[in-house]
Amino acid sequence: MLQTSELAIKRPRPVDPGEFRSAMGDMPGAVTVITSWGPDGAPSGATLSAVVSLSLDPPQMLACFDHGSNTLAAIQSHGRFLVHVLAHGQQSVAMKFSGKAADKFNGVEWEADVFALPRIDGCVVAVACELDKIIAFGDHKIVIGRVVDIERAGELNPMVYARRKMLPFENDGANQ
Question: Under a CB-based contact definition with an 8 Å cutoff, are residues 87 and 118 in contact?
Fold first, then answer.
């Protein structure tokens, strides 16, 4: 039997960022768009894949933004944001909000929700949040929001992103 002292301790090789990105592409995630109001009063939004629930008590959401994101700046200015889980069939919405164009909301059906946040129509879930904290880490900023409202359309199937493709997630009829 080998003893710990007999094992050669090897330093792991550095992880290649491209390899890491590719590996994370194998991990399916919801396709989400985050919206808020920019400092100029215009709606702002971004497609994100790094969005999860953080806590049930208190209910909180976590979203990761690139440091240079215009939507991150909008959230910092406005203090509230809306997390949309896109439905299958909203691929064009996801693609529109994935870029840096200023006219992302043109051609997208949306309205102000009860908190006056820009809400995109036809989503599976919309979660309204008040900004709680922003943490800078690596090449992103982690945004933590306290959930203040939830709207659900349980009859719709969400879209998932995996292996660089947007795919339908089939609902088995269970609605929790």
Answer: no
Cα radius of gyration (the chain): 19
pLDDT in tens, 136-173: 999 899 999 999 999 998 788 888 877 777 767 766 65
- The answer to whether residues 35 and 120 touch, using CB atoms and an 8 Å cutoff, is yes
Residue 74 lies in a domain: yes
**150 falls within a domain:** yes
35, 65 contact by CB (below 8 A) = no
Segment (H or E) for 105: none
Query: What CATH number corresponds to the domain at position 94?
Result: 2.30.110.10
> What's the domain range around 62?
30-160
CA dist., res. 174 & res. 137, Å (int): 37
Domain count, the chain: 1
Q: Which of 78, 31, 55 is closest to 146 using CA atoms?
A: 55
pTM, to two decimals: 0.84
Is residue 16 included in any domain, yes or no?
no
Render 22-44 in DSSP notation, one character per residue.
HHHHTS-EE-EEEEEE-TTS-EE
